[in-house]
Amino acid sequence: MKKLVVLALLLTLVCTTKASIDTINVYSNSMFKNIRCVVVTPTQYNKGNDRWPVVYLLHGFGGSYSNWVRGVADMQQLADENRMMIVCPSGNTGSWYFDSPVDLTSNFETHISKEVPHAIDSLYRTMNDRRSRAISGLSMGGHGALFTAFRHASTFGACGSMSGALMVHRITRGYNMNKILGDTGTNKKYYTDWSAFNVIEKYPTDSLAIMIDCGIEDPILMMSKMVHDKMVTLKIPHDYVERPGKHDMAYWRNAVRYQMLFFRNYFDKNKKG
Protein backbone atom coordinates (compact mmCIF):
# COMPACT_ATOMS: atom_id res chain seq x y z
CA MET A 1 0.00 0.00 0.00
CA LYS A 2 1.40 3.32 -1.05
CA LYS A 3 2.49 5.47 1.85
CA LEU A 4 -0.21 8.11 2.36
CA VAL A 5 1.77 10.81 4.03
CA VAL A 6 5.28 12.11 3.53
CA LEU A 7 6.09 14.42 6.40
CA ALA A 8 8.36 17.34 5.58
CA LEU A 9 8.85 19.82 8.37
CA LEU A 10 9.71 22.79 6.22
CA LEU A 11 8.87 25.37 8.85
CA THR A 12 8.79 24.64 12.55
CA LEU A 13 8.51 27.31 15.17
CA VAL A 14 8.45 25.57 18.52
CA CYS A 15 9.09 27.14 21.90
CA THR A 16 7.78 26.83 25.41
CA THR A 17 5.50 29.87 25.28
CA LYS A 18 3.99 29.74 21.80
CA ALA A 19 2.08 27.43 19.57
CA SER A 20 3.83 25.66 16.70
CA ILE A 21 3.44 26.20 12.97
CA ASP A 22 4.49 23.30 10.73
CA THR A 23 4.37 23.03 6.96
CA ILE A 24 3.96 19.40 5.93
CA ASN A 25 3.52 17.46 2.72
CA VAL A 26 0.41 15.31 2.47
CA TYR A 27 0.63 12.63 -0.20
CA SER A 28 -2.48 12.49 -2.36
CA ASN A 29 -3.33 9.02 -3.60
CA SER A 30 -5.96 10.56 -5.87
CA MET A 31 -3.53 12.99 -7.53
CA PHE A 32 -0.27 11.02 -7.10
CA LYS A 33 1.75 13.85 -5.59
CA ASN A 34 2.66 15.60 -2.37
CA ILE A 35 0.58 18.66 -1.54
CA ARG A 36 1.60 21.15 1.12
CA CYS A 37 -0.45 21.98 4.18
CA VAL A 38 0.07 24.25 7.21
CA VAL A 39 -0.62 22.88 10.69
CA VAL A 40 -0.90 25.13 13.76
CA THR A 41 -0.79 23.41 17.14
CA PRO A 42 -1.47 25.19 20.46
CA THR A 43 1.14 25.72 23.15
CA GLN A 44 -0.19 22.95 25.35
CA TYR A 45 0.15 20.38 22.56
CA ASN A 46 3.82 19.91 23.46
CA LYS A 47 3.18 19.77 27.20
CA GLY A 48 1.14 16.62 27.50
CA ASN A 49 -0.71 13.84 25.74
CA ASP A 50 -4.09 15.50 25.27
CA ARG A 51 -5.96 15.13 22.01
CA TRP A 52 -7.24 18.18 20.16
CA PRO A 53 -10.16 19.24 17.96
CA VAL A 54 -9.24 20.57 14.52
CA VAL A 55 -10.51 23.45 12.38
CA TYR A 56 -9.66 23.25 8.67
CA LEU A 57 -9.34 26.67 6.98
CA LEU A 58 -9.59 26.88 3.20
CA HIS A 59 -8.07 29.69 1.11
CA GLY A 60 -9.68 31.64 -1.70
CA PHE A 61 -9.28 31.74 -5.47
CA GLY A 62 -5.72 32.49 -6.54
CA GLY A 63 -4.45 31.77 -3.03
CA SER A 64 -2.44 29.05 -1.38
CA TYR A 65 -2.16 26.96 1.77
CA SER A 66 0.03 29.66 3.39
CA ASN A 67 -2.42 32.56 2.97
CA TRP A 68 -4.04 32.25 6.37
CA VAL A 69 -0.84 32.22 8.41
CA ARG A 70 0.61 35.04 6.34
CA GLY A 71 -2.53 37.15 6.54
CA VAL A 72 -3.35 36.53 10.21
CA ALA A 73 -0.25 37.32 12.25
CA ASP A 74 -1.60 35.88 15.48
CA MET A 75 -2.83 32.54 14.17
CA GLN A 76 -0.81 30.87 16.91
CA GLN A 77 -2.67 32.91 19.52
CA LEU A 78 -6.00 31.89 18.01
CA ALA A 79 -5.01 28.24 18.43
CA ASP A 80 -4.11 28.89 22.07
CA GLU A 81 -7.16 30.98 22.95
CA ASN A 82 -9.58 28.51 21.40
CA ARG A 83 -7.73 25.36 22.47
CA MET A 84 -7.64 23.76 19.05
CA MET A 85 -5.45 22.82 16.12
CA ILE A 86 -5.80 24.79 12.89
CA VAL A 87 -5.03 23.17 9.55
CA CYS A 88 -4.69 25.12 6.29
CA PRO A 89 -4.67 22.75 3.29
CA SER A 90 -4.16 23.59 -0.36
CA GLY A 91 -6.96 23.91 -2.87
CA ASN A 92 -4.50 24.68 -5.65
CA THR A 93 -5.08 28.21 -6.96
CA GLY A 94 -8.51 27.55 -8.39
CA SER A 95 -9.81 24.01 -7.84
CA TRP A 96 -13.02 25.20 -6.16
CA TYR A 97 -12.45 22.11 -4.00
CA PHE A 98 -14.10 19.87 -6.59
CA ASP A 99 -13.11 16.52 -8.03
CA SER A 100 -13.08 17.89 -11.56
CA PRO A 101 -15.09 15.91 -14.14
CA VAL A 102 -12.87 17.28 -16.92
CA ASP A 103 -9.44 17.55 -15.32
CA LEU A 104 -8.67 14.17 -13.80
CA THR A 105 -5.53 15.55 -12.13
CA SER A 106 -7.63 17.85 -9.92
CA ASN A 107 -9.33 15.89 -7.11
CA PHE A 108 -9.53 18.37 -4.28
CA GLU A 109 -12.88 17.24 -2.87
CA THR A 110 -11.28 13.89 -2.14
CA HIS A 111 -8.12 15.57 -0.89
CA ILE A 112 -9.88 17.89 1.57
CA SER A 113 -12.58 15.49 2.76
CA LYS A 114 -10.47 12.35 3.11
CA GLU A 115 -6.74 12.58 2.46
CA VAL A 116 -5.90 15.61 4.59
CA PRO A 117 -7.99 14.62 7.66
CA HIS A 118 -6.57 11.10 7.50
CA ALA A 119 -3.03 12.49 7.37
CA ILE A 120 -3.60 14.91 10.24
CA ASP A 121 -5.19 12.20 12.39
CA SER A 122 -2.23 9.93 11.65
CA LEU A 123 0.47 12.48 12.42
CA TYR A 124 -1.02 14.45 15.30
CA ARG A 125 -2.92 13.79 18.51
CA THR A 126 -6.35 14.77 17.27
CA MET A 127 -9.83 13.89 18.42
CA ASN A 128 -10.64 11.56 15.56
CA ASP A 129 -14.37 12.25 15.43
CA ARG A 130 -16.66 14.39 13.24
CA ARG A 131 -17.82 16.28 16.34
CA SER A 132 -14.25 17.46 16.81
CA ARG A 133 -13.71 18.62 13.23
CA ALA A 134 -14.87 21.85 11.59
CA ILE A 135 -14.19 23.36 8.19
CA SER A 136 -14.40 26.96 7.03
CA GLY A 137 -12.89 29.24 4.43
CA LEU A 138 -12.93 32.55 2.62
CA SER A 139 -14.48 33.30 -0.79
CA MET A 140 -13.79 30.19 -2.92
CA GLY A 141 -12.89 28.48 0.35
CA GLY A 142 -16.22 29.48 1.88
CA HIS A 143 -17.93 27.64 -0.95
CA GLY A 144 -15.53 24.74 -0.53
CA ALA A 145 -16.24 24.49 3.19
CA LEU A 146 -20.04 24.32 2.83
CA PHE A 147 -19.79 22.05 -0.22
CA THR A 148 -17.44 19.67 1.58
CA ALA A 149 -19.26 19.62 4.93
CA PHE A 150 -22.69 18.93 3.44
CA ARG A 151 -21.35 16.16 1.22
CA HIS A 152 -19.07 14.69 3.90
CA ALA A 153 -20.87 15.21 7.17
CA SER A 154 -19.45 11.94 8.45
CA THR A 155 -16.08 13.74 8.50
CA PHE A 156 -17.05 17.28 9.61
CA GLY A 157 -19.55 18.24 12.27
CA ALA A 158 -19.41 22.01 11.76
CA CYS A 159 -18.75 24.38 8.88
CA GLY A 160 -18.47 28.05 8.09
CA SER A 161 -18.21 30.50 5.24
CA MET A 162 -16.55 33.92 5.21
CA SER A 163 -17.52 36.03 2.18
CA GLY A 164 -18.31 32.80 0.39
CA ALA A 165 -18.75 32.58 -3.39
CA LEU A 166 -21.68 30.29 -2.69
CA MET A 167 -23.42 30.30 -6.07
CA VAL A 168 -20.99 28.81 -8.56
CA HIS A 169 -23.84 28.20 -11.02
CA ARG A 170 -23.65 31.95 -11.61
CA ILE A 171 -19.87 31.96 -12.13
CA THR A 172 -19.82 30.81 -15.74
CA ARG A 173 -16.96 33.01 -16.94
CA GLY A 174 -13.48 33.30 -15.54
CA TYR A 175 -12.22 32.17 -12.15
CA ASN A 176 -11.05 28.87 -13.69
CA MET A 177 -14.58 27.47 -13.56
CA ASN A 178 -14.66 26.29 -17.18
CA LYS A 179 -11.35 24.47 -16.68
CA ILE A 180 -12.68 22.70 -13.59
CA LEU A 181 -16.30 22.01 -14.55
CA GLY A 182 -16.09 22.21 -18.33
CA ASP A 183 -18.54 23.67 -20.82
CA THR A 184 -21.61 25.26 -19.22
CA GLY A 185 -23.88 23.56 -21.73
CA THR A 186 -22.48 20.04 -21.75
CA ASN A 187 -21.76 20.00 -18.01
CA LYS A 188 -24.58 22.22 -16.78
CA LYS A 189 -25.52 19.57 -14.22
CA TYR A 190 -22.22 20.07 -12.36
CA TYR A 191 -22.65 23.84 -12.22
CA THR A 192 -26.11 23.34 -10.74
CA ASP A 193 -25.66 20.32 -8.50
CA TRP A 194 -22.28 21.36 -7.08
CA SER A 195 -23.21 24.94 -6.26
CA ALA A 196 -23.41 25.34 -2.47
CA PHE A 197 -26.70 27.17 -3.01
CA ASN A 198 -28.16 23.86 -4.20
CA VAL A 199 -26.00 21.42 -2.22
CA ILE A 200 -27.66 22.64 1.00
CA GLU A 201 -30.97 21.18 -0.17
CA LYS A 202 -29.64 17.72 0.70
CA TYR A 203 -29.23 18.19 4.42
CA PRO A 204 -27.13 15.31 5.80
CA THR A 205 -28.39 12.73 8.28
CA ASP A 206 -25.73 13.96 10.72
CA SER A 207 -26.59 17.51 11.76
CA LEU A 208 -24.17 20.35 11.06
CA ALA A 209 -23.35 23.48 13.05
CA ILE A 210 -23.18 26.25 10.46
CA MET A 211 -21.94 29.86 10.51
CA ILE A 212 -22.09 32.19 7.50
CA ASP A 213 -20.79 35.76 7.54
CA CYS A 214 -20.01 38.44 4.99
CA GLY A 215 -19.08 42.11 4.85
CA ILE A 216 -21.82 44.59 3.96
CA GLU A 217 -19.54 46.24 1.36
CA ASP A 218 -18.67 42.93 -0.28
CA PRO A 219 -19.74 42.75 -3.96
CA ILE A 220 -20.84 39.12 -3.52
CA LEU A 221 -22.78 39.69 -0.28
CA MET A 222 -25.99 38.69 -2.08
CA MET A 223 -24.70 35.11 -2.39
CA SER A 224 -24.48 34.76 1.38
CA LYS A 225 -27.86 36.46 1.80
CA MET A 226 -29.56 34.11 -0.62
CA VAL A 227 -28.05 31.00 0.97
CA HIS A 228 -29.13 32.31 4.37
CA ASP A 229 -32.68 32.93 3.11
CA LYS A 230 -32.82 29.46 1.58
CA MET A 231 -31.62 27.86 4.80
CA VAL A 232 -34.36 29.72 6.68
CA THR A 233 -36.94 28.39 4.19
CA LEU A 234 -35.52 24.86 4.50
CA LYS A 235 -35.44 25.20 8.29
CA ILE A 236 -31.70 24.47 8.44
CA PRO A 237 -30.30 25.79 11.76
CA HIS A 238 -27.40 28.20 11.26
CA ASP A 239 -25.86 31.46 12.38
CA TYR A 240 -25.80 34.33 9.90
CA VAL A 241 -23.91 37.59 10.37
CA GLU A 242 -23.32 40.72 8.31
CA ARG A 243 -20.76 43.19 9.57
CA PRO A 244 -18.84 46.16 8.13
CA GLY A 245 -16.17 45.11 5.67
CA LYS A 246 -15.13 44.40 2.11
CA HIS A 247 -13.93 41.33 0.23
CA ASP A 248 -10.41 41.53 1.62
CA MET A 249 -7.99 40.22 4.21
CA ALA A 250 -8.84 43.03 6.63
CA TYR A 251 -12.36 41.60 6.86
CA TRP A 252 -11.25 37.95 7.04
CA ARG A 253 -8.63 38.73 9.68
CA ASN A 254 -11.48 39.86 11.92
CA ALA A 255 -14.10 37.35 10.78
CA VAL A 256 -11.94 34.31 11.49
CA ARG A 257 -11.94 35.16 15.21
CA TYR A 258 -15.72 34.86 15.36
CA GLN A 259 -15.64 31.65 13.36
CA MET A 260 -13.09 30.13 15.75
CA LEU A 261 -15.22 31.10 18.75
CA PHE A 262 -18.28 29.55 17.08
CA PHE A 263 -16.39 26.30 16.55
CA ARG A 264 -14.92 26.36 20.06
CA ASN A 265 -18.45 26.61 21.48
CA TYR A 266 -19.51 23.73 19.23
CA PHE A 267 -16.62 21.56 20.42
CA ASP A 268 -17.31 22.39 24.07
CA LYS A 269 -21.00 21.59 23.71
CA ASN A 270 -20.21 18.16 22.32
CA LYS A 271 -17.59 17.52 24.99
CA LYS A 272 -20.18 18.15 27.70
CA GLY A 273 -22.71 16.03 25.87
Low-confidence stretches: 1-17
DSSP E strands, number: 9
Q: Give the CA-based shape.
A: globular
Q: How would a crystallographer describe the biggest sheet?
A: 9 strands, mixed
Task: Please give the alpha-carbon distance between the first and last residues.
Answer: 38 Å
Report the helical percentage: 25-40%
Structural class: alpha/beta
Describe this structure in words.
This protein is α/β, with parallel strands linked by helices and 273 residues long. It is 34% helix and 19% strand. The chain contains nine helices and nine strands. The chain has helices at residues 67-71, 75-82, 108-123, 140-151, 177-181, 188-193, 196-199, 221-233, 249-272, and strands spanning 5-6, 20-28, 33-41, 54-58, 85-89, 133-137, 158-162, 209-215, 239-243. A hairpin with a 4-residue loop joins strand 2 and strand 3. The chain is globular. 47% of the residues are buried.
Name a few traits of the molecule.
273 residues, alpha/beta, 9-stranded mixed beta sheet, 9 helices, globular, disordered N terminus
List the helices and strands and how they pair.
Layout: E1 5-6, E2 20-28, E3 33-41, E4 54-58, H1 67-71, H2 75-82, E5 85-89, H3 108-123, E6 133-137, H4 140-151, E7 158-162, H5 177-181, H6 188-193, H7 196-199, E8 209-215, H8 221-233, E9 239-243, H9 249-272
Parallel strand pairs: 4-5, 4-6, 6-7, 7-8, 8-9
Antiparallel strand pairs: 1-2, 2-3, 3-5
Describe this structure in a few short sentences:
The chain contains 9 helices and 9 strands. With 273 residues, the protein is an alpha/beta fold. Helix 4 links the parallel strand 6 and strand 7.
